[in-house]
Design a protein that fits this description.
Neuraminidase, 749 residues, elongated
Length: 749
Amino acid sequence: MKRNLILLVMAMLAALPLAAVESAFWQVGSYEEFLQGTLRDISLNREGRLRLAPEARAVFSPDETLALSLATDKNKNIFIGTGHQGKVFKVDASGKGSLFFTARESEILALAVASDGALFVGSSPEGKIYRVTPDGKSTVFNDPSTKYIWALALDNKGNLFAATGDKGQIFKIDPSGKRALFFDSRQTHIMCLTFDRDGDLLAGSVPNGLVFRITPQGKAFVLYQSNYPEIHDVALDAEGRIYAAALGGAGGKGTPDLFPGKGAPVPAPGGVTTVTVTASTEGAGQQPQPTQTPGQANGSTSAGRPAPQTSAFPVTQIPQGRGSLILIRPDNTVETVWSSNSESIFGLAVRGDQVLFSTDSNGRIFELDPTKEGPKVTLLAQTRETLATRMLLEGTDLYVATSNIAKLFRLSGSQGKEGSYESPVKDTKFVSKWGNLTWRADAPSGSALEFYTRSGNSDRPDNTWSDWAGPYTKPEGQAIQSPSARFLQWKAVFKSSNGQGPDLSEVTVSYLNQNLPPQVRTVNVVSASDRPGSSSSTTGGSGNVSVTVGGSGSATMAGTGKGPTIISWQADDPNSDQLAYSVYVRGDDEQEWHLLKDDLRQTNYTIELSTLADGKYVARVVASDEPSNPASGARQAELASSPFWVDNTPPTVTAGKTEVNAAGVEVRFVAHDTVSPLRHAESSVDGADWVDANSDDGIVDSKTETLSLKPGKLGPGEHVIMLRAFDTAGNAGVGKAVVRITAGTASSP
């Protein structure tokens, strides 16, 4: 195994240019990763394996927006209830469709077929129940005086049960059409009905997400209360297990608005689907903690239904998600076997001990197999319609009704002959060169697997992208022929000629980002004594200079010449390459840069200014990504600092004319610096403390300054008057004048 992995990596690297050192790999191989792509006649199981899906095709498409209900008769005719024009269509066994019945009401939410072949039609709003004979003759069978009729179910005695809203009642209507209230749920809506093996009626409600079991005598027991507001559908498998589709979301919304004036048709969900298969067992009868008191509107009712006015159950907090599939075992224990933060379940169908469910994300059809090891979920097919509303089984064929564009799909029990999978688009962040495409798959005799690639520089494939390149047919690896670009997508085409297709488990693409140059963003020159945390200081102070890309600094003193000065910088690399730095300086009167140090890995360098002659300088930092790239492909960038001064020479201070008069003594000094302006001066008489001195022009700021000191009246004897001047670099120069005073006279050497 290890040897095979080494050979695989070597094969992938062989397709990359020799300059490549840091190759990247894009691997798709898990259920969550494959789910982000587009499946066309391809199924995906929980183990992350793609294979050909059951053959699916649209057998009928009425000119309607919504397909809301399905039923079948003993002659294998399929009836489709639609909205918003109240039409029912019939599709015969050959796939021929025709208009069968039109109600006065706009939505056909419920259908049921009697043993004599008559079709019961539940219409909404202000719903009525129609009875339509096989020859198309219709009568109003019953008017329950309710707004919505959500579901219809027939028992073995021919009694019809109607689930209604907006009062959450179930009515029982005998074969003669006589109606009686069978059960009042004290909920707003009863959404779904089905019978269990014992003849009890199962029902799901809104807004508290309750699953009821109701005896033939009308005695109800709550099997489960969901954290979601709506139980949209229920189904029973061959072992007596109950499956319930719970839906709703953080916004408190259950079923999408389906009726005119209640909102637009069902929107396609956005974002990446997150699906969770869990095995969290909950005790029967567990009730979530209430967060609202009965009677409060929570905005969670389905299909534009108003919130309940009264409720015997607390309105619970809606979880952060869209939907889940609940398993209720015969012993009343409960388990969440599937959940999603971006998909809601709308239709359920049972095939043996497997349950099929449809969602509102690309009209997906999932299959759940409750194995001993836990539930195994397979994405069986995608209709690529917005919403798969209802499903029913007819023999081995599964019929699926979709909405936003009403269609009827048929999924056969056998595997299709061809399908394709398009990967999500890979953003490599920069223009990249493509290496090899490799994959892992089982391909039985008579099957084939072909790959294609395309690339572009916009985040969604369009007519600016390259054409599909391929086919690639060697799983051990082939060089990708698509042009270099930032984005890449691959496609796998599955083919089968004998009913056994390939099984794909992993795809890997190698690529090399374009090597972009690094960026040097700032360069700073600062005296070590000025850095934070420095414990030393220089009398008279010192300066620093910095420059940032896009800005400039002014010439400033970098230090005193008596201590270290630090050149520091900030740099980064868009490819995250390791960088090496070279530091240079150049005098103002020089043409060539002089290297101070190369191959630095840290972002600072310390120099002694005493090694440089006095004058104005500029520092330059060159960053190179050669540590992560061969020399031939390495990139570099540079940035120079603003000018800084090196001043190692102190000012000169010369004593000039001295005068003594009745007011006292006056000594004139001249201070001068050849490199930098003077910044401060102070004087002392006879060794006393230094005191600030000012220039004759009022400010010490030039290279040459005249300072006239007037220490006042001095007693007879010799006196030493000193002046100390500091330049901008902090260098100090001292001059003195000696004054001798005798009674009535003064002298100076």
